[in-house]
Amino acid sequence: MTRETDRRRTDDWGTFEGLEEEFRNAVFWWLLVRGVLALVFGLVMVFMPGAAAAALSIVIGIWLVLDGVTGCAIAGRRKSTGRRWGMPLLGGVVAILAGLALVVFPYALAVVGGVAVLWILAIGLAVRGLLEITDRRSGRWGSFLGLINVVVAIVLAVVMFVNPLVALGALVLVVGIYGVVFGLTTIISAFRVRRA
């Protein structure tokens, strides 16, 4: 009875070790692929920002076209069953037009979208900074951080007003550097998992 129990424990332990090894390998490959993709994305953003922005616009455009076609198909099915179909059709047509615009004019719309993101960022920083400055519970340090947020927002807004392409280029560079750093740290984490 004792030998049988020991044998079962040994078999269970062996199975557990096998599962643990499989899990470790799966995590390793997941982290490695994710890190390599982030690294490649970051390098492309740093060294070929225009091509990266255009490629991203085209991918989003294709996705919007496919989504719009799906919306139109749903509208057709709803019409055949007597349900409301106007809004799905309108949404599908708008998505198709937006997607085609992104595919045909990727550079122009990438610039417009990037500038819009920068304006949203500047407004968000300004609002957050003002809230921290006016919040009495935040103390001196919170007020100081709020002031920094407001100053950064003002500088960002001025740069965007004077030369939006410079601000957009800086944003692309920051995103690219973040992608490189994230990719490298993820690859290092993958090999640490494998050695563990």
Structure, briefly:
By secondary structure, this protein is mainly alpha-helical. The protein has helices at residues 2-47, 49-80, 86-104, 106-134, 139-162, 164-195.
What does this structure look like?
The protein is mainly α and 196 residues long. The protein folds into three domains: 1-47 and 179-196, no CATH class; 49-104; 106-162. It is 93% helix and 0% strand. The chain contains six helices and no strands. The relative contact order is 0.15. Residues 9-13 have low confidence and may be disordered.
In percent terms, what proportion of residues is strand?
A: under 5%
Number of helices, where a helix is a run of at least 4 consecutive DSSP H or I residues: 6
DSSP E strands, number: 0
Shape: extended
The helical percent reads over 70%
Task: Give the H and E element order.
Answer: HHHHHH
Q: What separation lies between the terminal Cα atoms? A: 36 Å
Largest sheet descriptor: none
Unreliable stretches: 9-13
Q: What class do helices, strands and sheet pairing give?
A: mainly alpha
Quaternary structure annotation: single chain
What Rg do the Cα atoms give?
26 Å
Number of domains: 3
Q: What's the rounded overall pLDDT mean?
A: 78
